[in-house]
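call fold(seq) -> tokens
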Amino acid sequence: MRFSEKEVDFIARYEKRGNSYRLKVYDGYKADGSQNVKTKTWKPLAGMTEKQIQKELERQLVLFEEEVKCGNVSNANIKFEIMADKFLEQAKLERKLRQLTIERLEDCKERTYKAIGHLRLDRITTMHIQKFINSLAQDGANKHTGKGLSVKTQKLYKGFISDVYDFAARYYGIYLKKPCKEVHTVKVETKKREIYDLEEMQTLVNLLSEKAPLKYKVFFIIAMFTGFRKGEILGLEWSDIDFENQVISINRTSVYSKEKGIITGTPKTENGYRSLKVNDEVMNAIRELKAEQDENIAKLGDAWHGTDRLFTAWNGLPMGPDTPRHWLQKFCKKEGLRYVNVHSFRHFNATALIEFNCNVNQVSASLGHSDPTTTLNIYTHVFSKVQA
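ret:
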């Protein structure tokens, strides 16, 4: 009786043999119908507790199962989906990638597996990948806008596939020509970026000063004057504020993870770690916020969770990443103002710097971009307008 690749399961077991354990992996069936059994001996280190032994046994079983599975793929006849799952498992174990990066890659699985997951690594061609990328650019691919997925998102999918091939070579010695190398992303029609003009921003700042709760007033004033990202502002702690020299430093971000909730992350790039001197208006607003928070801490006592963050919920826990957006939407509607998303404050700041004749290196450093080329690509039209 013959079994198809889909029907064959890998089953791992272990049994105690004196001071060691014998690991067994049942690797499909032979031509006569009997099972293939691969074994390996593992001995615990001296001093390990029963709990530690049990945990390590489970890990050793997984590793041995991987060895058996990939040891049988001398010609890389393993499906993309299987190798991709191994890549993601290892990425989580090594923790070299940011939590949000791993979650974005996890989000890539459904579309990618549907397109090429069933194909063997050695049979996936450039044409397979190009066809997949082309499909991502088609109208309807983006469920929110009804348009195609952006070039940036297409690159994420392409990078995911490329990473799996790198992983197969690095961990399992499966060296294949990378089918992504000649794949090109597809330009899609994007919505024009909206930002507040100077008059609108002045009106908004005046209304924030008159009618907004202090923490929201301070949040949006910082966003306007510094161009910091939303997550960078939410990640600010009082130790990042140099009141004497009027300097704000970015050392972390506050982001939302589907798996872990609100977490503290690192800035987007190495250049994201930066310090910026601010004017009296910004620093005085921050001083007011500090005084208000100190009063709340005194009132709440043990109910206050000391996170040291500037922007918190009522009990001191970090403010949610969507809270500023939800609040601004309601505030603009109430006051009859045009609503533009929170990230537009960053674009407003960049545009203002350029219009005040800051060069591309200065603007890039202020925004924390990894390379001035990134700044130039995003704000080419603004630089061109100022030069004209």
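The first strand starts at residue 10 and ends at 17.
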